Amino acid sequence: MDSATAPEDGRLTYDDIADDLAWETPGITVTESHIFAFAGLSGDFYEIHVDDDYARSLGYPGRVAHGLLGLALADGLKNRSAVRLAAVVSLGWRWRFAGPILVGDRVQARIKVVAKRATRRPDRGIVTLDLTLFNQKGEVVQAGENDLMVHRAVAMSAGSAP
């Protein structure tokens, strides 16, 4: 597929995205398997993530998921939500860890468009999303912003080359 042409599958182009668009993603329950798989993938076997006794000695009820696992889940939830954007690439994240994500927590994200700007290329725009990841109790566990480069409608209609 030409990188300048977004597929016609219902994803929103830059021009379709309302300035105040907001939505919630589905949720996902964090399991031991998620934590151990992420530890293996990242090489981060810090005790708070893999040792219940150690995590309890620090005042947690058990193992705590990696902060970057929470960010990865937030990105995955965004990409699997009912609102889908015709993204080209992610340009970066500004992210903070506000609370622990524990085994058994069900997390989901609230997402809101907070900024849009055109680029020099007529077939792309930049969208900034505010994401809040919260658990089943409504507690914010992570939050931040994600900048996305998004296809413009002109790219879909003209089929312009990069």
Automatic annotation (TrEMBL):
InterPro entries: HotDog_dom_sf, MaoC-like_dom, MCH/BMMD
Pfam families the UniProt entry points to: MaoC_dehydratas
Domain (MaoC-like) ranges: 26-130
Identification of the protein by name: Acyl dehydratase
